[in-house]
Amino acid sequence: MIGFYVEEEGDVCYIRFKSDCYLNHDNINLLCDKINNIDINPFIRFVVFLGENRIFSKGQDISEICLAYEDENISYSFLLKNSYHKLLTLIKNSSKVFIAAINGMSIGVGTCIALACDVIYSSSKSVFYMPYLDIGLLPDCGFIYTLLMTIGYHKTYEFICTKEYYSADELYKLGILNDILDEKEFKNNIKKKILSFNKGKNITSLLKKYINTLKNKDLSEALFQECLFQDEARKTLEHKVAIEKIKKLNSN
């Protein structure tokens, strides 16, 4: 099942995550294919990630994590490198402006994708849920790297260790969100924000490339280390206990 659908309005491409579908390796690769096509489309300037029914993203399909844990022939690092890391790199290297428009619950990898975008807007009632440590894993899809570059070491460590749920207001105060928008006219407010990007597309594209050149000089190394540490996390007791709980719940 494809976990998203696409709408185009003028120079804006809206990619809407389906509220009844989890993200998995196949869906992320389909999303990568779509972004590759968008990147060579001269008529598209903006890409906006949205959700539906008050859910931005339900996060990663947990069965994918369970399968990687149970089958020694399946490498979770391989899944990361060939889907989520590929998506992150495409967003960062694209000439388009990527906007995360979060209106509702954002879980796990959905929040990771949002943080990879160039600009992040949220409604005031959005909630961000990061359950990684609860299942004995580290936040991935470049989340720790991006957060570290945004708020620094101390706040990053506290952010991940002490809470699972965050409000839009908390993330705005940390400097993670660009703005909080009225949810009643959320999509119209997003359109107004897009109109504020009124500089030439060539120079703004070059600016994005330049900023990321300065910021992400070590991104490839960070993603490589993420795979190594995530493989170590999968060997922990916390992850083993979490997988057993999930299997028990799924069998009922």
TrEMBL record:
InterPro entries documented for this protein: ClpP/crotonase-like_dom_sf, Enoyl-CoA_hydra/iso
Gene3D superfamilies: 2-enoyl-CoA Hydratase, Chain A, domain 1
Protein EC: 3.8.1.7
CDD domains documented for this protein: crotonase-like (cd06558)
A matching Pfam family: ECH_1
GO-annotated biological processes: fatty acid beta-oxidation
Root EC class: hydrolase
Transmembrane residue ranges: 97-121, 127-148
Entry's Gene Ontology molecular function annotations: 4-chlorobenzoyl-CoA dehalogenase activity
Keywords linked to the UniProt accession: Hydrolase, Membrane, Transmembrane, Transmembrane helix
Source taxon at top rank: Bacteria
Name of this chain's protein: 4-chlorobenzoyl coenzyme A dehalogenase-2
Species in which this protein is naturally found: Phocaeicola vulgatus (Bacteroides vulgatus)
